[in-house]
Amino acid sequence: MLNWKQDARLLSSILMVFTLVMSIPTAIAWSSREHDAFRGFLWAMFTALVLAALLYHISLSASSRKLGTRDGYILVTTTWLLVTAIGAIPLRASGAFPTYTAAYFEIMSGFSTTGASVIPVHDAIPSSIHFWRSATNWLGGMGIIVLFVALVPVMGSGGAKLVGAEFVGPTKDKLTPKIRNTALSLWLIYVGLSVLQAILLLAGGIPLYDAATITFSTMSAAGFSPYAGGVSFFSSRYVLVIVIIFMFLSGVNFALFFKALMGQGKLAIRDKELRTYGIITLVVATAGGISLAFSGMYDIGESFFQSLFQTVSFISTTGFVTADYQTWPAFNQMLLFILIFIGGCAGSAAGGIKVMRIMTMARLAKVHMRQRLHPNGVFPVHVGTKILSPEVTRGVSAYFGIYFTTALAGILVISLTGVDFETAVSSVLTCLSNVGIGFGQVGPKGSFAMFPPWAHWVFSFLILAGRLEFFTVFTVFTRDFWKR
Predict the structure, then answer these.
(1) Can you give the three-state secondary structure of the chain, one letter per residue?
(2) What is the mean pLDDT of the chain?
(3) 318 marked ligand binding residue
(4) What angle do CA 317, 321, 326 make, to 5 degrees?
(5) What's residue 144's pLDDT?
């Protein structure tokens, strides 16, 4: 049974933290004399505070009963919907976005680290709004709820229920005995890597504002940029190399960074998923570079660099671009299309199906074939040295089923907008995998602006479902969830 009043109290606290975070772009709007954006941020903060006060009033007689699994699902889903609704207010109030629907889609894309955009002209957007877009990337990269649990004490095992509902994955690493310490450790690592990237960008002559926005979108594996050309706007090979390195790191399981800091570097390097992630990146980048070199589009060095950048951008689901890859050979485009499905490692900021799930399904297929040859044999499913429990393998199989079922349904619905087949398929898959860029009209030179408003709501739902890896969102809509 849901503990509604306790849920209301936690949601009130989350909104208070969210209000504090929003004060930063509010200050930027004030200092930049962007009056419409400033008023928009004030309205958003006022709305959050009023809702927080109402929810706290409702929760005054809340029981001390611990949060259950259902509370975690409903609270995480509601939080993401609510902070997106409030976070979209400044975008619409500033006049930068024509409708609230477009603003909602943009912020949902930001918090989910998808990076898909409806902005037709970047120059017309106030600097504070661009900063807020990039900041939502960074906040969503490690998770809104994970940040809340790291900052605010949550009763009993409630923190674990909340983190488990948001930080979904095929396997979970418990870094410390207390979930709050785990959440804090993950965020400190995330902040540390972000600071390091920002310092390296500043060392390359990049202004502080640009270094911050690039870092926000890189470490979160998101891809928003204040400029139409993205990171290629700076025309700096140094900047692109730094971005490649940190895009790749954003797709690595953050638990491995923790292990490395704890003196277990060799154990982290031997991680089977990390090695597979690196091998896939290297093989695809090399194959793509060879193909580009033979096509004659670039010289050999540029061919491999462009292939490496786009490979890392796609597999980490960051979505930065440095070239119009839709003019590349079909072989290169197919390689990038496959990466939309794979994504980064479990426990990373990246989206996609995740390398661990791909490895698990491959292992399951191998075990099934051996089982058919030896019906009485017992063959455990293991990835590297880790034997996976039946619960994990069932969860992985269910994930694949729900991913492709949702994708097919989404493609069918979006096809009603009248877009071509390539755009319909690519737009849905890039939203589900939180990549942000795709093919057709949502390629490197396109955006989601040409879709009708109702389609933006569909995409927003697909983005949220993909970010929370389906089960948290879809479970709320089942009959069993609401049974007493």
Answers:
(1) CCCHHHHHHHHHHHHHHHHHHHHHHHHHHHHCCCHHHHHHHHHHHHHHHHHHHHHHHHHHHCCCCCCCHHHHHHHHHHHHHHHHHHHCHHHHHCCCCCCHHHHHHHHHHHHCCCCCCCCCCHHHCCHHHHHHHHHHHHHHHHCHHHHHHHHCCCCCCHHHHHHHHHCCCCCCCCCCCCHHHHHHHHHHHHHHHHHHHHHHHHHCCCCHHHHHHHHHHHHCCCCCCCCCCHHHHHCCHHHHHHHHHHHHHHCCCHHHHHHHHCCCHHHHHCCHHHHHHHHHHHHHHHHHHHHHHHHCCCCHHHHHHHHHHHHHHHHCCCCCCCCCHHHCCHHHHHHHHHHHHHCCCCCCCCCCCCHHHHHHHHHHHHHHHHHHHCCCCCCCCEECCEECCHHHHHHHHHHHHHHHHHHHHHHHHHHHHCCCHHHHHHHHHHHHCCCCCCCHHHCCCCCCCCCCHHHHHHHHHHHHHHHCCCHHHHHCCCHHHHCC
(2) 89
(3) yes
(4) 100
(5) 74
Write the burial class of residue 387 (CB in 10 Å: 0-12 exposed, 13-18 middle, 19+ buried): exposed
Is 276 part of any known ligand binding site? no
Which has the minimum average pLDDT: 116-125, 246-255, 339-348, 463-472? 116-125
Beta bridge partners of 382: 387
Does 26 show up as a binding residue in the annotation? no
* Alpha-carbon torsion angle 8, 191, 466, 479, nearest 10: -20
435 annotated as belonging to a binding site for a ligand: yes
**Distance from the first to the final alpha carbon of the chain:** 6
Contact 464, 405 (CB under 8 A): no
* 253 assigned binding-site residue: no
Q: What is the pLDDT of residue 367?
A: 87
pTM above 0.90, yes or no: yes
| Tokens standing for residue 230 | 């993205």
Task: Give the integer Cα–Cα distance in Å for 31 and 34.
Answer: 8
The residues, ordered by sequence, that sit 6+ positions from 276 with a Cβ below 8 Å of its Cβ are 355, 359
pLDDT tens column, 455-471: 999 999 999 999 988 98
Pairing of strands 386-387, 382-383: antiparallel
List all residues 6 or more positions away from 450 whose beta carbon is below 8 Å from its beta carbon.
Answer: 419, 441
Q: Which amino acid is at 306?
A: Q
Lowest-confidence region among 27-36, 137-146, 240-249? 137-146
Q: Does the annotation flag 376 for ligand binding?
A: no
